[in-house]
Write a structure and sequence with these properties.
504 residues, 65% helix, 0% strand, disordered N terminus
């Protein structure tokens, strides 16, 4: 499949983003990287040498030692994490660690116990870092530090947006001889998630120069994510080519990152080809994969595939993913699905009322208007007015007008026009012309004539169509005197005389 195709000799020679001599590469990167040192990722990345896969450093750090924490120890660590989370200050944390963590950490000098504890505390990064600091002070007491602990701490600092701390921890790991590929990856990720793209790429350069470390699949996953987020698809695809030419196997995170990159760039065919390539590989799609595909199908308007994918992740979407629900509703609004209203209303139940979105409210008005479901349309109009939502789209206003006209609901149209005027919605001459036509058809001539005053207040001048509406209404009502006066006015304004007008 295309995303992981084997590079030809010509392709190898044209890995543009990794060659310093390529003017095209410099042009592609220049909006992001200003310094010459960061205009490209060095050509050495394209070498097809055998990289150490470092399988222990996957997206979730695994322990490299044979000795693992027992089930009882794991349970104790989980309880300890809860107790630490409830501790209010550093002194209380230290007291808990002294009494309950010291023996655990001593029993597992490989660091597995402390890493597991940091995993339990990842939702409380401040407390997790306090645990790391405490553990670091125990080195002189015979409890060594391991590189994975530094990687975890750097990741935590990045999540707290403290990149200076992350960089300091990286330097400390290097001084202590613990600077592994996982530590590099952690700092690259911290830079990336804090939008420090140049620093992330510069660190990648350092990693390739480090004689003791080699890039892993996690490293390249970070590059893929970096380029995918920036919609630099050609660069993302070049990294894929390097992965293919090396001895690194794409991981689940690799595929998900590429799918997300293509979806972000609205490259639907490439997104789907990557998904098919994934299914043909030993890597199995997970719930995130299906969620990414669902988002892609929703944004591309592929309702059929969206519905099939939704069935695979329905529970997750309904319970925890309101943005995905909104994306699906948007897809139905734009579709011609005959049962779209029922499907939209079924999805609406999963949106919290507090999560009001003006754009979605306006879309619902538009859909209900198209379907002539006046009750739903007016309920959505009420919602928009209640939230002071401004409707400035002509197509939506026209859809409302047309719906009222088809239902012959002139009084409801008159109410809507008044509300739209007061709310500052985008008015159009069609609103008033439609009212005039409907009043004329019901022979309510005085109310029809009052619309002319409303038009004047809203600064809409009478046009040829305005006079023709009046002419038809007066003619059908047998108001000959008014017809004669109107014909004079039409001639005066240069609108001509209707061919069916009586000359007598």
């Amino acid at each position: 499949m295309k995303p992981f195709r084997k590079l030809s000799s010509m392709a190898k020679s044209n890995l543009l983003i990794f060659q310093t001599t390529s003017a095209k590469t410099q042009t592609l990167f220049s909006p992001i990287y200003k310094t010459s040192a960061l205009n490209q990722i060095p050509a050495s990345l394209t070498e097809t040498r055998s990289f150490c896969s470092d399988s222990s450093h996957t997206e979730k750090i695994k322990f490299r030692t044979e000795k693992r924490a027992s089930a009882a120890a794991l349970s104790s660590l989980a309880d300890l994490a809860v107790e630490l989370s409830n501790s209010s200050d550093p002194e209380a944390l230290a007291a808990v660690l002294e009494s309950k963590a010291d023996s655990l950490f001593r029993n597992y000098p490989d660091g597995s116990a402390s890493i597991e504890l940091l995993n339990h505390l990842k939702s409380s990064p401040r407390i997790a870092l306090e645990v790391f600091y405490w553990k670091r002070k125990r080195v002189d007491a015979g409890i060594p530090m391991v590189s994975e602990e530094y990687a975890k701490a750097i990741t935590l600092a990045g999540r707290m947006k403290n990149v200076d701390l992350a960089a300091d921890l990286f330097s400390e790991a290097g001084i202590n001889g613990l600077c592994s590929a996982a530590v590099y990856n952690a700092l690259m990720s911290a830079y990336m998630y804090n939008s420090l793209t140049k620093k992330s790429l510069s660190l990648f350069e350092d990693l390739k120069r480090d004689a003791n470390c080699r890039p892993t699949i996690v490293t390249y996953n970070i590059l893929l994510s970096l380029f995918g987020r920036s919609m630099l698809v050609p660069h993302m695809e070049t990294v894929l080519g390097v992965i293919k030419e090396s001895n690194l196997s794409p991981s689940l995170h690799t595929y998900n990152t590429v799918i997300e990159g293509y979806a972000t760039a609205w490259m639907w065919d490439e997104m789907e080809r990557t998904f098919e390539s994934m299914k043909a590989s030993p890597v199995r799609p997970d719930i995130r994969t299906h969620m990414l595909m669902l988002r892609g199908y929703a944004h591309s308007g592929n309702v059929e595939k969206m519905e099939r994918t939704y069935e695979l992740v329905k529970e997750e979407v309904n319970e925890r993913c309101a943005p995905m629900v909104r994306a699906m509703i948007h897809a139905y609004c734009k579709s011609k699905d005959t049962g779209r209203v029922k499907k939209i209303e079924a999805l609406m139940r999963f949106l919290p009322e507090v999560e009001y979105r003006p754009w979605l409210n306006v879309l619902l008005i538009w859909v209900y208007a198209q379907e002539d479901l006046v009750e739903g349309m007016e309920n959505s109009i009420y919602e928009a007015l209640k939230h002071n939502t401004l409707v400035m789209t002509v197509n939506v206003m026209h859809a409302i007008i047309a719906s009222y006209f088809r239902l012959n609901a002139v009084d409801q149209l008159a109410w809507f026009v008044k509300q739209a005027e007061d709310a500052g919605w985008r008015l159009c001459r069609s609103l008033y012309h439609c009212k005039m036509v409907m009043y004329g058809l019901q022979n309510r001539l005085e109310e029809m004539e009052n619309v002319l005053d409303e038009m004047e207040v809203s600064r809409f001048n009478a046009t040829k169509k305005t006079f023709w509406i009046l002419y038809k209404a007066y003619s059908n009502a047998g108001e000959k005197s008014k017809v004669q006066r109107l014909l004079v006015l039409m001639c005066k304004h240069g609108f001509g005389i209707p061919v069916d007008a009586s000359t007598s």
